[in-house]
Amino acid sequence: MRTKTGRYSGYIRPFSYLIDFIIINIFAAYIAHFPVEHILFPAVLSIAWFCIAAQLGFYEVYRYTKVIAILNCALRQGSLFAIVSFALAFFYAKETSFHAIVLFIFTSFGLILIIKFSIYFFLRKYRVLFGGNFRRVVLFGNSKTVEPLQHFFTENLDYGYKLIHVFDFDHDKKTKINEMFAFVLNNRIDEMYCSMSDLSQNQMSDIVDFADNNLKTLKFIPDEKQLLFRNFTFEYYDYIPVITLRNIRLDEKFNKIVKRIFDIAFSILIIIGILSWLTPILAVLIKFETRGPIFFKQKRNGLNNQEFYCYKFRSMEINDEAHLNQVSKNDTRVTKIGKIIRKTSMDELPQFFNVLQGNMSVVGPRPHMVSHTEKYALKVDKFMVRHFIKPGITGLAQTRGFRGEVESDHDIINRVKYDIFYVENWSILLDIKIILTTIYNTLKGDKKAY
């Protein structure tokens, strides 16, 4: 028997609500010894939990939601619920000990998180093993534009998308669009993915109207060079709607403070734990091989495109091209010790002093030489968006294989794409993930580290 699309998915969220409600109230009674016999107390506690969840989107987990996004939301949910729990205990349950409240928060929230992830990963396995909970989809666009998503759908069945057909363009787009409409209606298609760059405004409007009138989910695929990775937000000036095209997470004061505290703490740890003993050793080796300073400083563009001096251990012989040309593979300017420290990324460690000074962050878009910034700003669309936040020692683009030398337009376009994603989707957990991935890649060896 064929599994019906989304047959049980409508029950998952109500089931989660119920389970979380039971856990919170049972643990409140038997661990924290809150006065749950008074109906008002458990009611307020439960309402607080679900109000926080509604505001943060704690239950808004979809098949394409990343684990890091779930953890980030869970961290905020748990923190706010902890504040509410302490406040309620202070005003209505003063006999409850601090230890009991802490135990209640960690055990109840920990169990809720375990169940949440169990459901999440069970559904991913269920889709692969039993073929259920799938969304039937079609792609519409030229082969180059839809190929990455086509590959994703066919290689990642655990996400729950079943690619039924790909409509490639020919000379008569209108006929192809009508063919797609008929196919969608006759084959129980759930979602349509269309290439934006290959459609006119009128054609996009026709497709939107069709999707709305036939209750089909419609999503558009931007061209790689369009880089439409934006978090559109609506604001109202009185009753006048105003659209903000780019929502930058680090513009929020609280997020800035959290990131700055993390940067300072992590930098002090590296400077005291590693640079304190590594610097004298490298100083001797660098001086032994070539004359010149131990450190190399270079003007780069940072926050709001302001120039600053970026520090590195010197890995090249003194030359006049250092501020103009990037290091390339088998570059004759690189010294013997330079090859080693570049391969292991040790040359970047002095940038933790840049972080302490406040002109860099541990994680962020990598800063470019001033000459390269001017070049790419003219050549690559939205390149300057990277400068809305501080540059970093490592970044999302670097963990995805786009570090070091820019060998082609493909490299810089993808670097900017990942940088913009980071700018709009920053979280402290994403920073930690990038740092751990960077350490792993360094230990494993990166082919672009030269």
Task: Output the keywords.
single chain, 450 residues, alpha/beta, Rossmann fold, 3 domains, four-stranded parallel β-sheet, two-stranded antiparallel sheet, 10 strands, flat
Outline the low-pLDDT stretches: 1-8
Helix content: 40-55%
Strand order in the sheet with the most strands = 2-1-3-4
Query: Helix and strand succession?
Result: HHHHEHEHEHEEEHEEHHEHEHHH
The value of Rg in angstroms is: 27 Å
Query: What count of domains describes the coordinates?
Result: 3
Can you tell me the overall shape?
flat
Number of helices: 14
Q: Give the overall average pLDDT.
A: 83
Structure write-up:
This protein is of the alpha/beta class. It folds into 3 domains: 122 residues, no CATH class; 89 residues, Nitrogenase molybdenum iron protein domain (Rossmann fold, 3-Layer(aba) Sandwich); 194 residues, no CATH class. 53% of the residues lie in helices and 12% in strands. It is built from 14 helices and 10 strands. The chain has a 4-stranded parallel beta sheet, with helices on both faces. It is flat. The N terminus is likely disordered.
